[in-house]
Amino acid sequence: MGGSAANKPKLIIDGKRVDGRSFGQMRQIKITASVLKNADGSAFIEWGNNKILAAVYGPKEATPKHLSDPMKAIIKCRYMMAPFSSLADHGRTGPNRRATEISKVIKEVFENCVVLTEYPGSQIEVYIEILQGDGGTRAAGLTAAAVAMASAGIQMKDIPYAVSVGRIDEHLAIDFNMIEDNYSDSDMPIAISPRNNDIVLLQMDGGLTKEQFMRSIKMAIDAGKTITDLQKRALREVYAKDEINGE
Amino acid sequence: MSAFDSVKSGYIKELLAKGIREDGRGLFSYRDIKIIPNVIENAEGSAQADLGGTRVLAGTKVILGEPMHDLPNQGSFSVSAELLPLAHAEYETGPPSPAAIELARVVDRGIRAGNCIDLESLFLEEGKVWSIYVDLYILNYAGNLFDASALAAMAAIMTTRVPKYEDGKEVREDRSRKLKINNVVTTSTFGKIGNTILLDLDENEDNASDARITVATDDDTIRASQKGLRGSFSLKEIDMMLDKTFEKRKELKSKLEHMK
């Protein structure tokens, strides 16, 4: 969304998408857990050309004091794009309105999935740094942050994942890259809690019929099995390494 | 949330478990909607929207500007929102909160994705376009800021007049030209309290709710949507709310019909 219609490139060539994928095919995803020494939990995700680091600090004492909740933990989340992360411009540093909104909706996902009442009076910090962005950064960032949260040993009801589904002409397609993202007819990032397939994050703009809207969510759920497997594998690999090292 | 608020939330939940809302409304009924156009003469467009006790004032300014570099042949617009400290005891002075930014961006997306403003009609000459600034002033908060703000913004845009542009200069006194509108988008915002889904939450219901979803549509197409808060929705619940949104569309649109 957002690109000009005038110089819109052809997004579908011979029934394939610009990078040769089919409509239901995601990009390659690789997740590595526990990549940062200082953080309590962390993950690096390479999702297509996206390169994203996520880290979790906490639970620790909530600051400032007035934000502290004696009944449960509070979540703080910062999603940020590095100034060098996009092909086009030098991004200005500091949170902009887009990043502020994304940080808020991701924070709300972790308020759902973390067992907050286990950590009264504390805060859990989630940092998502987009080092290189190529479309779908919030979905990839959230997916990585969920692994970071689990690798921090924080109690969770579930490990959420996210993916975007969009529309190009009459076709719905999963996991848009940047070009598709810029020139598509609609875009819908969705995060799902896999234990019951409940929707914990949903944003959308463009144009969809009700039928397309519902089908988009179902496509995200279908893609979820692959993403969930990759998240779990990343976490298992950490412990497998620990065993070899005798820890 | 204060201790009083959490007691109040408990009461709201108890009532809802019996299928009752505090003000006696049906689960999918709006409070009274009233929109007054052209309340600020100096602005190029304006409207005040009352949704029950929630009051939002929207003003538009049409300012000479440069086009976005990737869209050289059209004007631009942006939506901002201020949760004014006079609107609620808990609103504070300071830079826009994440809640205000989210509100503004959700309203913006519905209007943008619905192509409501004919942006090409705002092109003047190479490197010069009209930029439209829509500012949402929350004057009184009594729940459901999203639908009240979307109505106020849409109404203000529909009343907007574009200054004259002549020989490379703007003539701000001459505002005889109406802004060209292509589409009218309305939004419905639902909340979930316990397992009950309801429309147009008032302040106490807002406080008690776990999840929120806003759906912006025109007559047949969903233009934007945003889920908020920590709760979740099932596929079935979303399906139902999309149907309700289209059901409510007529009522909301009729409130905007006389705007000019």
Overview of this protein structure:
The complex is a heterodimer of chains A (247) and B (260). Chain A is an alpha+beta fold. In chain A, 30% of the residues lie in helices and 32% in strands. Chain A has one domain: GHMP Kinase, N-terminal domain (Ribosomal Protein S5, domain 2, 2-Layer Sandwich). A 5-stranded mixed β-sheet of chain A has the order 3-4-5-7-6. In chain A, helix 2 (137-151) runs parallel beside helix 4 (210-244). The termini of chain A are far apart. The model of chain A has no long low-confidence stretch (mean pLDDT 93). Chain B has 260 residues and is α+β, with helices and mostly antiparallel strands. In chain B, 28% of the residues lie in helices and 32% in strands. Chain B is built from 5 helices and 14 strands. Chain B has helices at 3-17, 98-113, 145-158, 203-208, 235-256, and strands at 33-37, 45-51, 54-65, 76-83, 123-125, 128-140, 161-162, 164-166, 169-171, 177-178, 186-193, 196-199, 211-217, 222-228. In chain B, helix 2 crosses helix 3. Chain B is elongated, with a radius of gyration of 19 Å. Classes of the chains: A alpha+beta (247), B alpha+beta (260). Chain A binds chain B through residues 1, 3-4, 6, 97-98, 100-101, 103-105, 108-109, 111-112, 186, 188, 193, 196-210, 213-214, 217-218, 221, and chain B through 70-71, 73, 98-99, 101-102, 104-105, 109-110, 112-114, 213, 220-235, 238-239, 242-243, 246.
CATH superfamily of chain A: GHMP Kinase, N-terminal domain
Count of DSSP H/I helices of chain B: 5
Order of helices and strands of chain B: HEEEEHEEHEEEEEEHEEH
> Would you give the CATH topology of chain A?
Ribosomal Protein S5, domain 2
The CATH first-level class of chain A comes to Alpha Beta
Mean pLDDT of chain B, to the nearest integer, reads: 95
Helicity range of the residues of chain B? 25-40%
